[in-house]
Amino acid sequence: MLHYTTVAVTVDDNAFILSTISKDYLSVVSLKMTTEKVNDKYIGTEYKSMDCQYGAKKSVITDGIVDDNYDDAHIIQKIRKRINSGDKFYSLEFFPPRTDSGGVNLIARFDRLAIGNPLFIDVTWHPKGNSGGDEVTASLTIASAALNFCGLDSMLHMTCINSTTEDIDKYLRKAKKQGLRNILALRGDVSDSIDESVRHTKELKYASDLVKHIRKEFGNYFGIAVAGYPDGHPECSSYEDDIRRLKEKLDNGGDFVVTQLFFDAETYFKFLRDCRNAGITAPIIPGILPIQGYNSLRHLVQLSKLPVPQRILDTIESIKDNDEAIRKFGIVEATNLCKKLLASDDVPGIHVYTLNREEAVVKLLKRVGLWHEESIYKSLPWRPSANGKRISEDVRPIFWASRPKSYVHRTMMWDEYPNGRWGSSASPAFGELKDYHIFYLKNTSKKDELLKMWGEKLESVEDVYEIFTCFVSGERNKYGYKVDALPWSNDALALETLFIKKSLEYINSKGILTINSQPNVNALPSTHEVFGWGGPNGYVYQKAYLEFFISAERFKTLLEVLPNFPMINYHALDLSESINVSNSDHHQPIAVTWGVFPGREILQPTVVDPTSFSYWKDEAFALWTNQWANLYPEESKSRQVITAVVRNFVLVNMVDNDFIQGGNLWKVLDQLFSLEADKAVY
User: Which pTM was predicted?
Assistant: First the structure.
């Protein structure tokens, strides 16, 4: 805690300037502090450093005391900001999957749930399953993937039962290396102990010991949450003793509390009052379980010895053979409980135990008004990684727009990430992407599903044209199946693509095989529901962009018409780069998305970088083979069709610099089609 002597204070409606002298650092610091007025007294909620000899650090200020023990990577900071603003939040809990395919599906679920903007997620710890290992099913692997590749602030559960301090330190060092900054410290269930005879010989017997150890060995690197039990821990001698133990965990370094699930709002409010009376001031987040099945509820009750209201037991018993009725009942019960809790100023948010389910969780969050998809929550056009190492990253090449996890994977070893400008990058060091089997890069569809979408049998390249066209149009392919994904995109078309959908359908049907695009945008509000990003009171802009495969023979004809469009920049590469044609500076990036915001430099989060395009080209061509051609037998006609595309096509990107009028990209392709038609006649 750094104590400052105030030299001068100027107060306005909601902010003031502090000129202070740090007693610890003997440096002068000027701060602009956001405030709120409480009982005729201004209380600071956060500040932005305006001039600091030793560099800026974000902190929480209360009554003139700056807490520099935490930074924005700690969940407690995010919770405090929400408490100060009165903006309710939610978080989600998951358990690691049992199989590798389950890991692929869970990451896809993270991506879908991330749309609703949870404050954080957490992943449970299972000592029997090697939670600290490298397997897809390991807790640490899942939490790291959510953080780094799904952009979700992630908290890793960690238990100390049957673990030495050496075990714990090994796991924590690994978590630190992977960017995880938050731990939920738990004792763990006795039933999880591998050897009961040695359990009590370990150094860490209780969660309070684990919290104390983490603080001793890692200081404030990790934010630490602890568990609270509104009905009392079943193994504790009394409810009052359990609250004393909770206070001990917090006194040893815990930041906030996540409660065990409960079914009655008054249970939580009584627990909260008792905690406050015991001197506990930390935030206490209520844990909520939407009941989703008869057997899962029975198992949880037996495991945790939770008291369940008789009315709930009676209702569940009467519909125990109707899973759908139980799910509906569970959502209604959880909704009513959450509404009672969230109506109180003492409840900053809720923590939802998902059981790795999705539908019930989303319905619950929508019903209580916590599911937010508004663009005001989108800081950039792409979802940033939540790894603190990349916190300043605000520029990326557009090529990986539909494969952001691949981009993060290939740039994980960078020491610094582009901030403000991409710069003139002659040789960005992109890592190799040989591990297409990595679970967070896998297509979520099974082989038989992919064959239905992309064709069980291909006769010619025209069959490929049809698959691309159906992906854009949403219509069924000639085999009667919808094409919901392509190798370059596992997701449906972005909303902004709907503005140019008809044009994309047309050119794909003509053999211009598009894998990336964006329409032009001129000064739309930054809160626009489709194009908005960056927060309120700004304006956003885009240059139209198109990226596609075209046969090398047809590309020659395209080169004949491109000079008619001086506002278009283009770059074309084949796999071997024997074709490498551009009318741009080979080392100069082009900004294709930018935003103008009050009091800030112009932000340019998306660029077309010629050097990066060469790296992307290798990946884009490889996807033809690794995800599509390999579906078919080695000597089959279908594989030969895809292999011929890889061998004979060119990858092209085009940028229309006229972001006001736009339309040049479609015009140049229309001229291509007209010229081809004229040549065919003669």
Answer: 0.82
Section 396-416 average pLDDT: 93
Q: Which of 340-344, 357-361, 492-496, 674-678 has the lowest mean pLDDT?
A: 492-496
**Residues 38 and 84 placed together within one structural domain of the fold:** no
Do 292 and 365 lie in a common domain? yes
Report the C-alpha dihedral over residues 613, 616, 621, 622, rounded to 10 degrees.
160
> Rounded to the nearest 5 degrees, what angle is found at the Cα of 458, between the Cα atoms of 454 and 463?
70
Candidate list 36, 46, 93, 560, residue with the active-site label: 93
pLDDT of residue 32: 39
User: Using one digit for the tens of pLDDT, what is the confidence trace for 565-599?
Assistant: 999 999 999 999 999 999 998 788 999 999 999 99
Q: Quick one: CA dihedral 103, 108, 111, 116, positive or negative?
A: negative
- Could you tell me the strand order of the sheet in which 65-67 lies? 41-52, 28-38, 15-22, 2-11, 65-67, 60-62
CA–CA gap between residue 677 and residue 121 (Å, rounded): 56
Percent of the chain clearing pLDDT 90 (strictly above): 70
Query: Residues 179-190: what's their mean pLDDT?
Result: 92
| Residue that finishes a domain, picked among 47, 68, 89 | 68
Q: Is residue 93 annotated as a catalytic residue, yes or no?
A: yes
Residue 40 confidence (pLDDT) = 38
Q: Both 291 and 440 in a single domain? A: no
In a domain, 528, yes or no: yes
Distances (CA, A) of 600 to 273, 539, 597, 607: 44, 12, 6, 19
Domain shared by 361 and 310, yes or no: yes
Kindly state whether residue 161 falls inside one of the protein's structural domains. Answer: yes
CA 264 – CA 333 distance, rounded (Å): 10
CA–CA separation, 365 and 331 (whole Å): 10
What DSSP line would sit under 442-468, residue for residue?
A: S-SS-HHHHHHHH-SS--SHHHHHHHH
Q: Look up the domain containing 563 and give its range.
A: 388-681
Q: How many domains does the chain have?
A: 3
- Could you tell me if residue 450 is inside a domain? yes
In the chain the first and final C-alpha atoms are separated, in Å, by: 82
Beta bridge partners of 94: 123
Q: Is residue 378 part of a domain?
A: no
Whether residue 570 contacts residue 654, with contact meaning beta carbons closer than 8 Å, is answered with: yes
DSSP string, 475-530: -B-TTS-B---BTTBSSPPPGGGGGGHHHHHHHHHTT-EEEEEE--EEEEETT-TT
Question: Which tens digit of pLDDT belongs to each residue from 278-324?
Answer: 999 999 999 999 998 888 888 877 777 788 899 998 999 999 889 89
